[in-house]
Structures are given as C-alpha cells and as structure tokens.
Amino acid sequence: MALRPATPLSVLLLAAFVMLLLSTLSAPIIENINIATFGGVKFGVLGWCSKNLNDKTGCSRVSFGYNMDTILVNETKSDFSLPSKARNSLTNLLIVHPIAAFMTLVLFVLSALAHLHGPAHSPKYLLALLILCLPTVMVSLLAFLVDILIFLPHLQWGGWIVLAATILTVTSCIVMCGIRRQVVSRIARSKRIQASAEMGDQSAYFARPDIAPTESRDKLPEFATFEVHNKAAPISQEGERIPLNPR
Fold first, then answer.
1. Percentage of the chain exceeding pLDDT 70
2. Local structure of 234: helix, strand or coil
3. HSE-up (13 A, CA, CB side) for residue 71
4. Among 31, 172, 205, 210, whose CB has the most other CB atoms within 10 angstroms?
5. Whole-angstrom Cα distance, residue 233 to residue 199?
6. Is residue 48 within 8 Å of 71, Cβ to Cβ?
7. What average pLDDT is seen over the chain?
8. Which stretches of 74-156 are DSSP H helices?
9. How far apart are the first and last CA of the chain?
10. Residues 1/21, Cβ–Cβ less than 8 Å
11. pTM, two decimal places
C-alpha cells in the first residue's frame, strides 16, 4: 500500500484501537491488564480477579457491572473518591469501553479505504469520516471519565491508556480536517486551471486571421443617411403670366 496522506491517519486510529482493545480485554479476560488495583483485587472492564487465602487467583465471570462492596474486604477503609453506592452504579457504564473500541475500529477501516483513489479525492467521503470521528472522541472520553470516577486514586495503566487513545483520536480528527482541506483546495485549483485553459483556447481561436471578430452587441446599428437637395423654384417676375396649358 503506497504512502498517502491517509496513512498517518490510519496509523493513529490503529494505535487508538489497540489501546482501547487492551483496556476492554482487562481482568478477568487478561489478568495482567487491569484498570485499577486495591486490596489485592484487580479490576477490569468485564469483571475482577483476586487472590484467596491459598494464594490462588480467582476471577469473576465476564459481565458488565459488579458490586464492589462484596469484592473488597476492607471497603470501609478505602479511599475512593466516590461512595460505594455511586461506584457500584457507575460500573454498569464500563460498557462504553467496547463501544469506543468498536467505533474506533470502524473509523480505522474507513480511513484505510481512503488510500483508494475514489475516497481519497472525495470531499463528501472525508466529511463523513470527520462526522464519525466526533462521536468516537466523545465515547472514548466518556470511558476515561467513568474510569476516573470509579477507581480514582487507584487507577492503573489499563485506565490511562484510554486517555492516550482519546488523545490519538482527537489528533486523527485534526489530521482528517487537514486532508479534507487539501483535497478541496486541489479540486478548486484544478477547476480554475481548466477554466483558464478554456479561456485561452477561445482567445486563440478568435485571434486567427481567417476568423473575423463579431461585432459587439452593445454597439448600436447605423442607419443610412440621405442628402436632400431642395432646388427652389425660380421666382417669376412680377406681372409675368404662365399659361396653365403650355403648348
């Protein structure tokens, strides 16, 4: 695939998708990836993992939302920013992580298609990408805010990569605006060049010696003029009579 203006855009969106995917595949799917850690419990998007008395790790089943009161032993001694009831309700909003990952994946596929000649030179296609980029940024930012509200100040790298993915998505939107502006200016310049070429061909056509220039429409028509000579009749002398019926 040739290096085109859409290549940096695709790279940024691919990196953002990988980060959001890693955050989504956190504990209990991948134990080593966690959004937050407290009291020996590793929290993820779809569940949690903890060690029991035999130092064996046990993980919950994959589901959206969980009750942190039943997970944490010393819940009363925790220093979370929000109370437990609010945090338990907000855990249901962790579903925005896979939604953000899916929207970023769709945006990446569409940006990869922008390497083709048709989409790469279509301002409407690039505008559709830009419109889709805005809700993707909003959902990614919402996912990071949910992590902050639930797990602060115990947020781990699995939560901070959501912020990095949001920044990359915002950067891709800026790159997308630059690509679309470049395409629009290129199309406008080609139209101006084509119009100038057509004017030049028309001027060269009328400059040929065998082509007589047409009269201007603003020029008024000229009318024929006639000279009228009034030959005055000879003045008859006083007393002279002219017969009515000359012989």
1. 75
2. coil
3. 24
4. 172
5. 65
6. yes
7. 80
8. 84-90, 96-113, 117-120, 123-151
9. 117
10. no
11. 0.73
Q: What is the pLDDT of residues 24-54, one digit of tens each?
A: 999 889 988 999 988 788 899 998 888 764 5
Structure token pair of residue 20:
């959001």
- Tokens 């955050």 found at: 23
Q: Three-class SS of residue 165? A: helix
pLDDT value at 133 more than 50: yes
Sign (positive/negative) of CA torsion 160, 166, 170, 175?
positive
3-state secondary structure 38-82: ECCEEECCCCEEEECCCCCEEECCCCCCCCHHHHCCCHHHCCCCC
pLDDT digits over 59-102, tens only? 888 888 888 878 876 555 567 878 888 888 899 999 999 999 99
CA atoms within 13 A on the CB side of 65: 7
How far is Cα 39 from Cα 78, in angstroms, rounded to an integer?
9
Tokens of 73: 């032993």
| 75, 135 Cβ separation under 8 angstroms | no
Report the alpha-carbon distance of residue 204 to residue 199 in Å, rounded: 9
